Amino acid sequence: MKENFEAVIGLEVHAQLRTNTKAFCSCTIKFGNEPNTNVCPVCLGMPGTLPVLNKNLVEFILKMGIATDCTIRKRSIFARKNYFYPDLPKGYQISQYEEPICEFGFVEIESDEGVKKKIGLTRIHMEEDAGKLIHDVGVDTFVDVNRCGTPLIEIVSEPDIRSAKDASRYLQKVRQLVTYLEICDGNMEEGSLRCDANVSIRKKGETTLGTKAEIKNMNSFRNVERAIEYEISRQIAIVESGGNVVQETLLWDADKQISYSMRSKEEAHDYRYFPDPDLVPVIVDEKWIAKVKTNLSEHPTRRRERFISEYHLPKYDADVLTQEKSYADYFENALPGLSPQGVLRTNKTKENFKSISNWIMTDVLRVVSERNISILNFPIAPINIGKLVSLIDNGTISSKLAKDVFEEMLNNNEEPKSIVERKGLVQVSDANEIEIVIKQILARSENKPHIEKYLSGVEKVLGFFVGEIMREMKGKGNPKVVNEILKKYLEEMKK
Ligand code: ADP
Ligand code: MG
Ligand code: ZN
Asked: What is the pLDDT of residues 74-101, one digit of tens each?
């Protein structure tokens, strides 16, 4: 029975750092250049060349280490991980083995019900990437070594994760962190963020770890979740039929939704790790750590809490808006558009905060996804969303007209006020003007039956009349005023 088992999961996440140059030479890490052009004798591992550590690599990993509460090792060293593969001309990868720079941190995840759980981090270390093999359908395999020497950090979790869903939550948190810290672009499809999952099962109540299998090649949160789910079921089936799980490395096939064995698991001693004699130890002092700490961008979890406490946003809104740093920035950059004096801490402002949040969550993000663009390239400047909300707030336009203004703003980021003036969209709130229209509509003979209906108690006819009035007013009537006056007139007819 599935219920008798518990899953034990640990993730190894590789994040490609957004430095300008490679880890140990000055070649660019730019993606998409001609194959084998971003190279030099150092990253090709020519004999006699010497690697020189990119200081930004240390700076970036310190950010991540501090943001995850790791202990920072003041003196850490690099090691050579030796293996042969055609995408690795040097024959070894520079990595950290003993004495990694960051250890014993944690990442906090939260369930849908709000239950928080800390996932321990065993270590975060620095290393370099290998090149890429390009398999031409059934013919040749090409080698592109542009990626050789690209700086990576590897974030290794403790086996603290207990479900596929939590593994995906953890990975999302890690992605959120590295993107907030602006040390990695977090693009999983392009491989800037890669994840290997280690999975084992055990009978509930047991404390020793079972034999694990490692799954590679999952390039989306959904795939991570599915692959782990699949692996848990596979292992339970093996154990239930009396077999033993073997330690191996599996590849996930996202199309077929199955995994298959790639190789039996290698052991650390197969790699013949040894301290790299070409690189000096990395020394980090308190002053450096303090400097990184002061310049650290706001932690996403704290930003989310602040969105709730400072802007009174519902938890759901805060989650959506702080999921991506760029969304959160867009929201906060919209606030100065609220008139007259920008952001006021009043109840009225609270409604406007929520309104801005709604515009971003529905209209802005809808267009972002339709056009498949980044919110950073969104055609409407955030401040203009704030201004649009102001126009609704002060009664210049209705929310309905605001939708049209928004569509218009998409064209060339024109100020909402200028669109309203240019198109004559100003909302009519004047009672006299509205009364005239209401009288006209109620006097129409074809509307008699509807009036009868209302008088006999069918309240929903009100909506029909509002529609008629709005049509007559070309959508410019203030819905609140229209409703009030209309009701007054109809009620009077009852007498
Ligand atoms: P390896 O030497 O095979 O790479 P490590 O001890 O370095 O194994 O652990 C790699 C990852 O696997 C870590 O994230 C760790 O938490 C996880 N892990 C280790 N043992 C188990 C296990 N029995 N079940 C699930 N995950 C495990
Ligand atoms: Mg390992
Ligand atoms: Zn180079």
From this structure: 999 999 999 999 999 999 999 999 999 9
Torsion of CA 220, 223, 225, 226, to 10 degrees: 170
Closest CA to 19 of 51, 47, 48, 61: 61
Over residues 155-180, the pLDDT tens digits come to 999 999 999 999 999 999 999 999 99
The pLDDT of residue 439 is 87
> Of the ligands numbered here, which is closest to the C-alpha atom of 26?
3
Ligand 1 neighbourhood includes 235 CB (under 6 angstroms): no
Q: How many degrees, rounded to 5, is the angle at CA 294 between CA 293 and CA 297?
A: 80
Alpha carbons 272 and 407: distance in angstroms, whole number:
61
* Ligand 2 centroid distance, CA of 429 (Å): 68
488 burial via Cβ count (<10 Å: 0-12, 13-18, 19+) = exposed
Q: How far is the CA of 159 from the centre of ligand 1 (A)?
A: 7
Residue 468 has pLDDT above 70, yes or no: yes
Query: Which atom of ligand 1 sits closest to the CA of residue 198?
Result: 26
Shortest-distance Cα residue to atom 22 of ligand 1: 212
Question: Could you state, in order of their start, the residue ranges of all structural domains in the chain?
Answer: 2-292, 298-422, 431-494
CATH for the stretch 431-494: 1.10.10.410
Say yes or no: CB of residue 95 within 6 Å of ligand 1: no
Q: 100: Cβ below 6 Å to ligand 1? A: no
How many angstroms separate the CA atoms of 142 and 132, rounded? 8
Region 48-59: what's the mean pLDDT?
95
Contact criterion met (CB below 8 Å) for 434 and 482: yes
224 lines ligand 1 (CB under 6 A): no
How far apart are the CA of 372 and the centre of ligand 2, in A?
A: 36
Other residues' Cβ atoms within 10 Å of the Cβ of residue 452: 12
Which of 198, 232, 239, 269, when mutated, tests ligand 1's pocket best, judged by the most ligand atoms within 8 Å of its CB? 198
CA angle 140, 146, 151 (to 5 degrees): 130
Residue % of the chain over a pLDDT of 90: 65
209 lines ligand 1 (CB under 6 A): yes
DSSP string, 20-68: SB-SSSS-B--TT--TT-S--TTTTT-TT------HHHHHHHHHHHHHT
Amino acid 232: pLDDT: 96
